[in-house]
Design goal:
9-stranded mixed sheet; 5-stranded mixed sheet; Archaeosine Trna-guanine Transglycosylase, Chain: A, domain 4; alpha+beta; Pseudouridine synthase; 20% helix
Length: 311
């Protein structure tokens, strides 16, 4: 498969350990320069202050974004008590200060409170967020001095545990949380402070996991930029997706490349529930993502040249 002008033939999933002080778009631009491929995107924004796992998609693999952004994500966060900010994190302007109750320093109370966060919540996203209302982006309006009215959304905290309590220099909790797509940890910190009769904001954040992939397998930008072949650092897309996988025949592979449906039973996906996605592979390369529909598998995303791991 030949590359178009200005593009490479790279196609893969690249796990990046994002440093603090950079936007996710900054990371994407650096990967573009490192790979020479202009089709680069990511699966789930990290705020500039945050560090950790950013799943970057290169070349045709950018079409995997819908299947990766929907994944649950795990974070390590520091919640600092005593004041709120306009951004709900440490980079914002202080807007509210409040005394901190003594029980915030109690490890048993802290652990019990954090564990109690598990469940479904109605969350109002931060004023400084990328949410759009009436064609306007919330953070752009906020910078202009206008706060858009943002409706609450349903989010789920799937797991939450206390990692540590600090009360010497500041009142803060270090926590680990696994949350559903669209959850703002900044907003959870803000709301937790209010629920305890005080004020709070997010002091630090690190994403450690997104769906099936872990920050332990991620690479620094320096490693990527100094690699002789950055594609050698690509992750296996089949395991990255976290989907069931069917290995198909050469005949069926030609049908996939044409974007045609497959017979579910012949493809080995007879047990797949209706509507569920499955990775379709041939020779170890991901050829597409299909969904069960009746007795067929129907294409959701097809990759003519396949998406492999390290190349």
């Amino acid at each position: 498969m030949s590359a178009r002008r200005g593009e490479t033939i790279h196609s893969g999933v690249l796990l990046v350990d994002k440093p603090s002080g950079m936007t996710s778009h900054d990371v994407v631009n650096r990967i573009r320069r490192a790979t020479g491929e202009r089709r680069v995107g990511h699966a789930g924004t990290l705020d500039p202050m945050a560090t950790g796992l950013l799943v970057v998609l290169v070349g045709p693999a950018t079409r995997l974004a819908p299947f990766l952004t929907a994944a649950d994500k795990t974070y390590e966060a520091r919640i600092v008590f005593g004041f709120e900010t306009d951004t709900d994190d440490a980079e914002g302007r202080v807007t509210v200060t409040a005394p901190v109750p003594d029980e915030v320093a109690d490890p048993f109370f802290s652990a019990t409170t954090v564990a109690g966060l598990v469940g479904v919540h109605e969350q109002v996203p931060p004023a400084y967020s990328a949410i759009k209302r009436g064609g306007r982006v919330a953070y752009e309006a906020a910078r202009a001095g206008e706060m858009l009215e943002i409706e609450p959304r349903s989010i789920t905290v799937l797991a939450a545990k206390l990692l540590g309590v600090e009360c010497a220099h500041e009142y803060s909790w270090d926590v680990e949380m696994t949350v559903s797509k669209g959850t703002y940890i900044r907003a959870l910190a803000r709301d937790l402070g209010r629920a305890l009769g005080t004020a709070a904001h997010l002091g630090a954040l690190r994403r450690t996991r997104s769906g099936a992939v872990d920050v332990a397998d991620a690479h620094t930008l320096e490693e990527i930029e100094t690699a002789e072949h950055p594609s050698a650092l690509f992750s296996d897309p089949l395991s990255s997706l976290g989907l069931p996988v069917v290995e198909i025949s050469s005949e069926s592979a030609s049908r996939v490349r044409d974007g045609r449906p497959l017979d579910a039973e012949e493809s080995g996906a007879a047990g797949l529930v209706q509507g569920a996605n499955v990775g379709v592979a041939h020779g170890g390369a991901l050829l597409g993502v299909y969904a069960r529909s009746g007795k067929q598998l129907k294409p959701q995303a097809v990759f003519f040249g396949g998406v492999g791991g390290a190349q």
